[in-house]
Structures are given as C-alpha cells and as structure tokens.
Amino acid sequence: MKTAAIENANAVPLRNRVVADLAELVKARLTLLVLLTTAVGFYLGSESPVHYVALFHVVFGTAAAAAGAAALNQWWERRVDALMRRTRTRPIPAGRMPPLQALVLGIALSVFGVAYLAIVCNLLSATLTAITIGIYIFAYTPFFCGNCRISSPSRGCTAKIIRGPASA
User: Fold this and answer.
1) Scanning 22, 58, 69, 73, which has its CA 20 to 30 A from the CA of 101?
2) How confident is the model at residue 29 (pLDDT cuts 50, 70, 90)?
3) What is the pLDDT of residue 145?
C-alpha cells in the first residue's frame, strides 16, 4: 500500500511537468496573443451580428496551427537554445522532451490546424495560415532567431498576418 501511495504522489509532479513542458513547447502565452488578434480581426471583419460559432472554429483552427508552428520553431532552434542561458531550460534542450516528439507534435498540430480551417472555415483562411507557418518556420526562424547575423539582439521581430477579415 505504501509503495502505491508513493508512486501516485510522484506521478502528480511528473504529470504537471509534462503539461508545463507542452505549454512551453507550444509557447502558450504567445499563442494566446495570436488567438486574441485573430478574434479581434474576425470581429472587426464581421458583419453584424457576429457569428460566434464561426468565431470559435476560426480560433480553434488557428490555435492548433499556431501551437504547431511554435513547436516546430523550438525543434528547429534546439541546438542554439541549448547554448543560450535564457532558452536552455526549454523542454528539448533540457532533455525533457525528445526532438522527434516535438517535431511530430509540431507537424501534426500545424497540419490539423490548416486542414480544420480549410474544411470548417474557408480555403482563404487555411491558405493564409499555411503561408504564415511557412514564413515563420522557413524564413523567420532560420534568419531572425539568434542563429544568424541578421538576427536582432532581442529576437523580437515577428511579422504576423491577421486573418480576421478573411475568416469572416
């Protein structure tokens, strides 16, 4: 009995660590800001009355795509992140998450988000989301994220496409 109680007590912090690592991998706070700008763009681009079911679908698909792009970004930057004091405790460079797991999760979330937007919302929203993911992973990450001379010291130069009016 005591052994089972000890094992269960140890499982709770491990579960919390996994959830915290997933939230850090998908950059939950940054993703929340993307969702806020998406919702505002949808609202501003909508005709009255706002169709809240459509808003939910747009935010849901965007959430998956943004989380996937963030995971792919961290997978791409894992070697540089391991060298920087600010980023070396992230899940991949700290060794708490295998790189392949982050890559698969990032691809799955990105593909799901784009497909969801294409099927449930519209093709324009899905196309703009796919372009945004591509620019973030293949342009922003390699050229502006600390592993290139073009990079700014703050690494804070991100261009975002607000899809609101396209999604309405």
Assistant:
1) 58
2) very high
3) 60
